[in-house]
Design brief:
The complex is a heterodimer of chains A (94) and B (967).
Chain A (H helix, E strand, L loop, with lengths): L1 E4 L3 E4 L4 E5 L13 H9 L7 E7 L7 E7 L5 E6 H7 L5
Antiparallel strand pairs in A: 1-2, 3-4, 4-5, 5-6
Chain B lengths: L12 E10 L2 E7 L3 H7 L6 E2 L6 E2 L12 E4 L6 E5 L9 E5 L25 H5 L6 H13 L13 E14 L3 H13 L3 E4 L15 E2 L2 E2 H13 L4 E4 L2 E6 L4 E7 L11 E15 L3 E3 L12 E3 H10 L7 E6 L2 H12 L3 E7 L6 E5 L6 E4 L4 E3 L2 E5 L2 E3 L12 E3 L4 E3 L8 E3 L9 H18 L32 E3 L4 E2 H9 L5 H8 L12 H12 L3 H4 L13 H5 L11 E2 L3 H6 L2 E6 L2 E7 L7 H14 L2 E4 L4 E6 L3 H8 L11 E8 L5 E11 L2 E6 L4 H15 L6 E4 L4 E7 L3 H6 L2 E2 L13 E6 L3 E6 L8 E7 L3 H12 L5 E2 L2 H11 L45 E8 L11 E3 L13 E9 L4 E9 L8 E6 L4 E8 L9 H4 L1
Classes of the chains: A alpha+beta (94), B alpha+beta (967).
């Protein structure tokens, strides 16, 4: 696979490490979250046959975490974003 | 027997004679021959034995689809089994032997199997070897194992080297037959970056095997001229002997280039190169594979595909037989007869299925002598050319889940609409079965691909040729007595297919696995279609309704060595060497692999009889005076920024906000689920600058996870991370004389207990100005420091430290002594941080701050993880001091007569022989361990047959108050 890095252009997937569902970015605050919220964040993921937003880490490159939108049936990649930008757009800050 | 079947003409170089041997018999061929063509030229029809029934078999095809003629090439370590004789180029001195027989090829003892064929039908393994159960391992398996497999491995390491290569192109053209050449010319002339690959050593595909004309010249001449033009273009990479074996995601193709297989020896050059081709567009012009017809006794040596007969006659100037009969359901049969006659070979009969004619049997045990028609006529023939039509080579179109479509007019599957992105298909691979159509399609496919890429094709039309006739009437299976072979390589007959269906294997995917149809090394290139047709016929369904099996990579076999490339032996993965490695080698250190690192395990001295002698001495001398250990391999992460302290406070479970500048703190990281993940120390060099250490094993993972937290969880924290593991050489200097030793090395720093107390850190210089860092931390429990210098000074540093330590009798110690000392001291390491343990288990429960959010803090509060009767880290001493403890032993009560998982009290994690205490000691987890100090339990170890009484003690076997490290 080739991942079109937003800063570095097309790079081979072998340079990246896969983590999983991009929902892993939505970590609740441990001081305010209920047990259920923290449990669901930790353990529950969707497993879609089709479009999937997922986290990849450019470990053999610039160490960017990316959110890659990939079709799990065809491996077609339709969008690649810097995870930091996505995190901010989801309201994460400090 | 000197090339008795050699004709005139062909594309071989008769001026270069090539000597080779088959089963020890010396033969001659010419440059440009394959082993198969040379064997046929020498009249060698019997070349192998079939897999299951050991039936005599001959050459069946002229290409990579060959099911029968598998031979063993070369001798010694380079011996290679299961090579297709049709793909092996002849070279001088080639030694080939037949395989899969006991005794000679002519008198194979195992041919007796054939007599039992009625009992060896489809699925006979599953039916026969059921009972008695006692026979499974003792009788059946040895018999099956000894008769399984075809050729024999040399059992020596592969003497050749293999390379990996990477290529990028606008257009990859797969196959250099007429369609591929037309595509390559169109793309090459336009200036695009083109790679054109063909598995043959002679580009041209069927143009070399037929008598067609292109652009008013002989097809083979046109192909040679086109190839020469392509080779002269800088933007075109022409690759022969290169099989594109797989279509992967995003336009990436796998290709295997055979570099030296056609030479007597590789002489150190890479034998094969595994290419990864990154293409923007690809044209699949892989041609088509001819298939046989299932008729009784159709497996005799001499029965051959008609297209292969034409290849041998036209390309190699070899007659596959002296009297040839033809059995066909299409126009190729007639073309075969014409080509044979043109070369003066006698054609004894044409059986045309389109006219209702058929074959009912054949004769000739070790070579065909005659065929019998359905109408009862017998025709003398030593070769039968069979054509059941052609199957487009759609394989690569299926590698991304594509399914082929059935085309009734050519009785074949063609590529479906669902092609791998970026791929188009041209020529016979696309069902364009005639020459002019193939040339046109190749040209058009290249022009369309260029258009997609925004490149403009060069002016010009497709090369001109006449379309030959291609009339076919589907004919798969001739009824009659006797076995009609479908899959020659795995010995599957039409009857097996029908039997499997009767037994309920109606899906072609199940049928294939049950009968092994198409599952041999040829992957059913000549047989899948036939099997499918026989199944369809038996089910009374159409072929498209019956389905087709899916094709997966590789298209043809790829040697494991090619996949491994250079990553073998010591180069299997990179070796990371510590800065003191060279020095340690000079000290005759024994090294151990930890991850990619090589670390000194111990430093044996003269007179020491075993590793224990060395390790005990290293421990004793460190605790008595001073020892030095390279700890560079620990992960080091430089953390800077205004929010660095806040960031660390969220990464570590314990508090870090108020760590004073100039101090080091032990930190414990949890996983988000509350289990312990990693530990280490973090030093604060200034308000906004920290240096973290991680365990050696987790250095990469912790860094990755911290980057995740930084970018994905708290993107606006002002903090930056750099891994500096390789940038700093770091040495632990431990023991009562550590301070005195370092005083000689470190410049202008007050190392007194007041000036530089336990857990202090400072930036400093050493050896008169070399930048350094000093930490007062202790893993051994002794008065200890770690001194770091830029990695390039690491070798000089170890030498300087050893020299400064000479007056104290300083010794280097390795990872074993390191381990012994940390077990004596009761420090947790990988055995305790084993992915199952919580901070509470480790006795560190109080460290996890409840006043802040940190990774894992919330879920670490779960009830089950905080039970009072949970496991706690303790030390263990054998009651009988002579007993040796074992890690992995489980603790059970003294009166427990039936130890099981319910009465289990915990387990031993680490053990060592303590030189300080002069007996074996252990660390382990015991339920309610802290309340059980002084109790005696058993270390029960049924795996090793041991049952040892142990006393539960503090995990801190030595100096529990920490007097030494604070001294």
């Amino acid at each position: 696979m080739i991942i079109n890095h937003p800063l570095l252009g097309p790079r081979d997937a072998a340079e990246f490490v896969y983590l999983g569902d991009a929902s892993l970015m939505d970590r609740p605050d441990g001081m305010t979250a209920s047990d259920e919220e923290m449990h669901d964040y930790m353990y529950l993921r969707d497993n879609p046959a089709g479009e999937h937003r997922e986290l990849w880490y450019h470990e053999q490159g610039d160490r960017s975490w990316l959110v890659v939108t990939r079709n799990t049936l065809t491996h077609e990649i339709t969008m690649v974003e810097l995870a930091r930008d996505v995190a901010r757009s989801r309201g994460r800050s400090k | 027997m000197s090339q008795s079947n050699r004709l005139t003409g062909g594309l071989i170089d008769r001026s270069v004679s090539v000597n080779f041997s088959f089963n020890g018999k010396n033969m001659q061929g010419f440059q440009g021959d394959t082993l198969a063509s040379a064997l046929l030229a020498n009249g060698q029809r019997l070349v192998g034995r079939s897999f299951k029934y050991h039936r005599p078999r001959g050459i069946f095809s002229a290409g990579s689809e060959e099911p029968n003629a598998l031979v063993q090439l070369r001798k010694g370590a380079a011996q290679e089994p299961n090579t297709r004789a049709t793909m092996a180029e002849l070279f001088d001195g080639l030694e080939a032997t037949s395989q899969n027989h006991r005794g000679s090829l002519e008198r194979d003892f195992m041919a007796l199997t054939d007599l039992f064929a009625p009992f060896l039908s489809a699925g006979f393994y599953y039916k026969t070897f059921m009972w008695p159960k006692a026979f499974w391992e003792r009788v059946y398996e040895p018999i099956i194992r000894s008769s399984a497999g075809l050729g024999r491995l040399s059992m020596q390491p592969d003497p050749d080297v293999y390379d990996h290569g990477y290529m990028h192109c606008d257009l990859l053209i797969i196959g250099a037959g007429p369609a591929g050449l037309a595509a390559a010319l169109a793309a090459g002339r336009s200036g695009a970056q083109v790679v054109v690959a063909d598995e043959d050593f002679l580009p041209g595909g069927r143009l070399n095997a037929e008598t067609y004309a292109v652009e008013d010249m002989a097809g083979a001449d046109w192909a040679a001229q086109a190839w020469a033009e392509l080779q002269a273009m800088d933007n075109v990479r022409c690759m022969t002997r290169t099989t594109v074996y797989g279509a992967y995601d995003h336009g990436i193709y796998g290709a295997l280039e055979r570099r030296t297989d056609h030479l007597a020896a590789s002489e150190g050059r890479p034998r094969q190169v595994l290419w990864r081709v990154y293409s923007r567009r690809a044209v699949l012009s892989a041609g088509a594979t001819e298939r046989s017809i299932a008729f009784p006794m159709n497996d005799r040596p001499g029965v051959m595909l008609a297209g292969a007969v034409r290849t041998y006659v036209n390309r190699y100037g070899v007659a596959p037989g002296k009297r040839v009969a033809v059995f066909t359901n299409n126009d190729d049969g007639l073309r075969t007869a014409a080509d044979l006659k043109a070369q003066g070979v006698e054609v004894t009969g044409i059986i045309d299925a389109r006219k209702g004619e058929s074959l009912a049997t054949t004769w000739g045990r070790k070579g065909l002598t005659a065929v019998g028609t359905a109408s009862g006529r017998s025709i003398e023939a030593d070769c039968l050319a069979v054509s059941g039509g052609w199957s487009p080579n759609v394989h690569l179109t299926c590698h991304q889940r594509g399914r082929p479509d059935w085309r009734e007019d050519i009785a074949a599957f063609v590529p479906g609409a669902d092609l791998p992105p970026g791929m188009s298909v041209a020529g016979a691979a696309n069902g364009a079965m005639t020459l002019a159509a193939a040339l046109k399609e190749g040209h058009a496919a290249a022009c369309a691909a260029l258009g997609d890429l925004g490149l403009s094709p060069a002016a010009g039309d497709a090369p001109k040729a006449e379309d030959e006739t291609f009339d076919i009437k589907a004919f798969w299976h001739a009824p009659g007595k006797g076995r009609a072979w479908v899959d020659l390589q795995n010995d599957v007959t039409a009857k097996d297919v029908k039997l499997a269906r009767t037994e309920g294997y109606r899906s072609v995917e199940l049928l294939k696995r049950y009968t092994t149809l198409g599952m041999a090394t040829d992957q059913g290139k000549t047989s899948n279609m036939l099997g499918l047709a026989v199944l369809a016929e038996a089910s009374g369904k159409s072929i498209p309704d019956t389905g087709t099996t899916i094709f997966r990579p590789p298209y043809s076999p790829v040697a494991m060595g090619a996949f491994a490339g250079r990553a073998r032996g010591k180069d299997f993965r990179p070796n990371r060497l510590t800065p003191s490695h060279k020095w340690a080698e000079e000290q005759s250190a024994t090294f151990v692999t930890t991850g990619n690192w090589l670390r000194a395990q111990w430093f044996a001295q003269a007179g020491e009889k075993g590793w224990r002698d060395s390790v005990d001495r290293e421990v004793v001398q460190t605790r008595r005076s001073v020892g030095i250990c390279d700890v560079t391999t620990l992960g080091k992460i430089d953390i800077q920024g205004r929010d660095a302290a806040e960031f660390l406070n969220r990464i570590y479970s314990n508090a870090f906000l108020k760590l004073p500048v100039g101090k080091v703190r032990y930190g414990l990281m949890l996983r988000e689920d509350g289990i312990c993940y990693d530990d280490g120390t973090t030093a604060r060099f200034s308000e906004n600058h920290f240096v973290m250490t991680t365990t050696t094993a987790n250095a990469v993972l912790v860094f990755r996870r911290m980057e995740f937290a930084r970018q994905c969880l708290w993107p606006d924290l002002d903090v930056h991370l750099i891994s500096t593991t390789d940038a700093w050489a770091q040495f632990a200097v431990a023991g009562p004389n550590a301070r005195a030793l370092l005083g000689k090395v470190v410049d202008d720093l007050d190392l007194s207990n007041e000036g530089f107390p336990f857990m202090a850190c400072a930036e400093c210089t050493v050896c008169g100005g070399t930048p350094g860092r000093l930490f007062r931390i202790s893993f051994s429990g002794e008065l200890a420091f770690e001194v770091a210098v830029p990695a390039r000074y690491g070798d000089a540093m170890i030498r300087a430290l050893m020299q400064a330590g000479e007056e104290f009798g300083a010794i280097p110690y390795g990872t074993e002594a390191l381990g012994v000392m940390r077990i004596e001291k009761g420090h947790a390491a990988g055995n305790e941080l084993n992915g199952q343990t919580t901070a509470a288990n480790l006795g560190l429960g109080m460290m996890v701050s409840k006043k802040k959010d940190s990774i894992g803090s919330k879920l670490s509060e779960r009830e089950e993880m905080n039970r009072d009767d949970g496991l706690r880290l303790v030390g263990l001493h054998p009651v009988d001091r002579n007993d040796m403890l074992n890690a992995g032993a489980h603790f059970v009560e003294l009166d427990d007569h039936h130890p099981d998982m319910f009465s289990d009290q915990g387990y031993m994690t680490s053990v060592a022989w303590s030189p300080e205490l002069s007996h074996s000691i252990g660390l382990g987890f015991v339920k309610r361990g802290k309340d059980r100090i002084g109790d005696i339990v058993r270390a029960y170890d049924p795996v090793r047959g041991k049952d040892t009484k142990v006393e539960i003690v503090s995990a801190h076997h030595i100096d529990p108050e920490g007097v030494r490290q604070r001294g």
